[in-house]
Amino acid sequence: MIAQACLESNYGRSRLSSLHHNYFGIKASAGWKGDSVIYSTQEYVHGKIITVKQPFRSYSTLTDGFADRVRFLQVNKRYTINGVFSSPTPEEQAKAFLKAGYATDPAYPQKLISIIQKYNLKQYDL
C-alpha cells in the first residue's frame, strides 16, 4: 500500500493527492456516487503512451481516501481473481496489480518493487 501511494501520488506531491486525498489514482467509474475531478493522465494503449482526461475520485479526508482504496480492491473481484490478496511476496503482488488491470504501464510492477526496495518497505509487511 505504501509503495502504491508513493508511486500513484508522486510521493504526495500530485494535485490529485494533495487537493483530493486520492493517493492511489483511483478513477471515478460510472458507478461511483461520490465526488470526482477531471485530470489529465497518461495511459498505455497498444504499447504507446497517450495523455487522456479522466475522472478521478475525490475524497474529503485522507482517511476517506485510504478506506475507499481498501473497499475498491475488495469489491472489484478482478483483484482477488488475479492474486492481489493471495500473492506470497510484494513482488508477486506488484505483478498481480498489473495483471488485474490496476495500471496500464507495463513497467508498473518494477516501479513498485523499486520503491519497496529503496525504502525497505518489506519491514512493514504484516
UniProtKB/TrEMBL annotation:
Keywords: Hydrolase
Domain of life: Bacteria
Designated name of the protein: Mannosyl-glycoprotein endo-beta-N-acetylglucosamidase-like domain-containing protein
Pfam family, one: Glucosaminidase
GO molecular function ontology, one term from the record: amidase activity
Keyword rRNA processing: no
Keyword Manganese attributed: no
PANTHER family on file: PEPTIDOGLYCAN HYDROLASE FLGJ
Mannosyl-glycoprotein endo-beta-N-acetylglucosamidase-like domain span: 1-125
